[in-house]
Amino acid sequence: MVASGEELVKICRENGIPIWEYAIREEALRSETSSEEVVEKMRRTLHVMMDSSTIAQEQEVKSISGLIGGDAYKIRSYADRGNTLTGSFINRAMARAMSASEVNAAMGRIVACPTAGSCGILPAVILSAGEELHKTEDELVNALFTAAGVGIIIARNATLAGAEGGCQAECGSAAAMASAAVVEMMGGTPEQALNAAAIVIKNVLGLVCDPVAGLVEVPCAKRNVAGTVSALTTADLVMSGVASKIPFDEVVEAMYRVGRQMPAELRETALGGVAITPTALRLKKEIYKD
Ligand code: SF4
């Protein structure tokens, strides 16, 4: 696997292939299986995403703690009423993101992509863009490989963990991976895909990890919604011709550096950010009954 975004773009350009095709080849090599098997495995992943991003839209799903639940159902009903500001497409994508996050908080089956906390973004973005662009299931599977290709580079040069890099590394990376995937889905080049990833990360640089009561629920679920909207709108931004002034690799490096500069209180310990607001502390008391 390539070590950087620059290398990835170079290899894709030399071979005249998109990121997803390179990622399939690499995964087949790494796992010593055929490309067909690698693709089928990803198809099963896609199916889990389809379920998790749908379940909580159709019926109210409450988290084990009771902290979140029922919001995906609300957003979907609102989208169906057709009276939204940002339109049915964005609202349905938001409902998908919320659904997967609620399913996760209810201990349901999700795909940690790249983490459980950010599990709503990729399904919401890929499935919503795929629906809007009339993509086939195979094309959605390919989009997941684009996302994986970008995610691997972030993991290699920075981190995907909130405990290490804050939420910028978790939801930020998920949204970056998703935006890059949509750009390739829309016919953009690998370079444009990485431009989208860079822009998305820049826009959440410094985002802290501050889960209320130490649970991956608040503010996590709504950050999945925000990441989804950012990924989709940034794909359009890039496809219009807008590029990132700072290259992807440098943005990833900056993200890692910012994560390391964050105090431990803002890295998943629930000792800072919104996790120590009076309301969060009261909710924590109620949940743990102490
Ligand atoms: S706030 Fe922390 S636990 Fe919640 S999604 Fe972000 S990184 Fe994950």
Name given to the CATH architecture: Orthogonal Bundle
Could you say what the CATH topology is called? Answer: 2-methylcitrate dehydratase PrpD
- Sheet bearing the most strands, described? none
Q: Helical content, roughly?
A: 55-70%
Number of strands: 0
Report how far apart the termini are: 49 Å
Shape: globular
Q: If you compute it from the alpha carbons, what radius of gyration comes out, rounded to the nearest whole angstrom?
A: 18 Å
CATH class: Mainly Alpha
Structural class by SSE content: mainly alpha
SSE order: HHHHHHHHHHHHH
Q: Treating each run of at least 4 consecutive H or I residues as one helix, how many helices? A: 13
How would you describe the overall organization of this protein?
The chain has 290 residues and is mainly α. α10 runs parallel beside α12. The protein is globular, with a radius of gyration of 18 Å. 52% of the residues are buried. The site of iron/sulfur cluster has 14 residues, from α9 and α11. The site of iron/sulfur cluster (SF4) has 14 residues, from α9 and α11.
Keywords:
mainly alpha, 13 helices, 66% helix, binds iron/sulfur cluster, 2-methylcitrate dehydratase PrpD, single chain, 290 residues
Topology:
Blueprint: H1 5-15, H2 19-31, H3 35-58, H4 71-81, H5 87-105, H6 121-132, H7 137-157, H8 162-165, H9 167-185, H10 190-202, H11 220-239, H12 248-261, H13 278-288
Helix pairs in contact: 2-3, 2-7, 3-5, 3-6, 3-7, 4-5, 5-6, 5-11, 6-7, 6-9, 6-11, 7-9, 9-10, 9-11, 10-11, 10-12
The protein binds iron/sulfur cluster.
